[in-house]
Amino acid sequence: MVLTTWQVLASGPLLTPDERLSRALVRTVPDAVTERLSDLGNVQVAVPVLVLATAYSVRRSRSWAPAVTAGLAMALVPAVIVPLKEWTARPGPLEPWAAGYYPSGHTATSAVAYIGAALLIGPFTRRPWPMASALALTGATAAGLILRGWHWPLDVLASCFLCTPLLLAVAHAVRRTDAPVGGQGLPRT
Q: Is the distance from CB of 60 to CB of 179 less than 8 angstroms?
């Protein structure tokens, strides 16, 4: 995250390949498709998924710690993203006169909501589909934002870096919870 932010602020060498990649990809897929993919990162779409997963997690585990950690992680997304957008004032791929595109708030929202939800319900399903679905939804959001021209690839990558510590905190809270699953508790690590 520090490297990508430095590149944006200092107009570093990573911006040239970032801009070339964006120019090669923008509008290669119909806007109707990329807009729908981008919408997966809207607060109105992603946050309810996390809310449902937190409710399910609390009900099944009788522990609030993972749910509260996931909620705090989501609350930190705008608290961190908005000041970074204002500080970097990076223009958009299709709107060079506008600023505030770095990092991608939609990518961060989708990552924390979908991956956070998968972390919360994963111990109860004991199957790979929650995380696979979360990664697919987050990847679809990121792809839609880049292909539509709403974000540079580096904006999306930076959001993924930014969300990693938030999601690690959620994973840690889930691992530490002694939640009953089929009469057995989750192992403590």
A: yes
Total domains present in the chain: 1
What is the extent of the structural domain holding 140?
A: 30-178
13 in a domain, yes or no?
A: no
| pLDDT tens per residue across span 14-33 | 999 999 999 999 999 999 99
Give tens-digit pLDDT for 116-155: 999 999 999 989 999 999 999 999 999 999 999 999 999 9
How many residues does the structure list for the chain? 189
Q: How many helices (H) and strands (E) does the chain have?
A: 9, 2
In a domain, 12, yes or no: no
Rounded to whole angstroms, how far apart are CA atoms 72 and 146?
A: 27
pLDDT class for 62, splitting at 50, 70, 90? confident
Closest CA to 74 of 95, 43, 120: 43
Distance CA 38, CA 107 (A): 9
Contact between residue 113 and residue 141 where contact means Cβ atoms under 8 Å apart: no
Residue 99 lies inside a defined structural domain of this protein: yes
Report the chain's C-alpha Rg in angstroms.
18
Cα separation, 25 vs 19, whole angstroms = 10
Q: Tell me whether residue 7 is exposed, middle or buried, using C-beta atoms within 10 angstroms of its C-beta: 0 to 12, 13 to 18, 19 or more.
A: middle
pTM of this prediction? 0.91
